[in-house]
Design goal:
By secondary structure, the protein is mainly alpha-helical. The chain has one domain. Helix content is 41%, strand content 9%. The strands form 2 sheets. Strands 1-3 form a two-stranded antiparallel sheet. The longest helix has 14 residues. The chain is flat, with a radius of gyration of 16 Å. It starts with a strand and ends with a helix.
C-alpha cells in the first residue's frame, strides 16, 4: 500500500489556518512530503524502536488491492505538502 504520511501536528496547523481564514469553499488536500510504502514504514518504525519482529505485507486481491496500491490513495495534484519526511520524524522520536 502506498501512502503519503503527514505529521499530526502539520494537519492540526493546516486545520487552524482554514479556521482562521474563514469560509472559502473547498480547501486543498494536505499530504506529507514523500510517497512511501506502508510495509517499509512499519519495518523502519520497528527497527527504530529496537523491536525484533517480522512484518509481513498482506496483498489484497482484485480491485481492492489495485486501488490500495494506486495513486487514488494519495493527495491530489493541488495538495499542500507539509511537514517532515517519515525519516525526519523518526529521528525526532526519543
Amino acid at each position: 500500500m502506498i501512502t503519503q504520511p503527514v505529521a499530526a501536528a502539520e494537519v492540526g496547523a493546516a486545520l487552524a489556518e482554514v479556521v482562521d481564514g474563514g469560509p472559502r469553499g473547498r480547501v486543498p488536500d494536505v499530504g506529507g512530503p514523500r510517497v512511501e510504502r506502508l510495509p517499509d514504514l512499519t519495518r523502519r518504525l520497528l527497527r527504530h524502536r529496537g523491536r525484533r519482529r517480522t512484518s509481513v505485507p498482506v496483498r489484497l486481491p482484485d480491485r481492492t488491492g489495485r486501488a490500495m496500491n494506486g495513486p487514488d490513495q494519495l493527495p491530489g495534484p493541488d495538495a499542500v505538502l507539509r511537514g517532515p519526511t517519515f525519516a525526519e520524524w523518526l529521528s525526532l522520536l526519543a
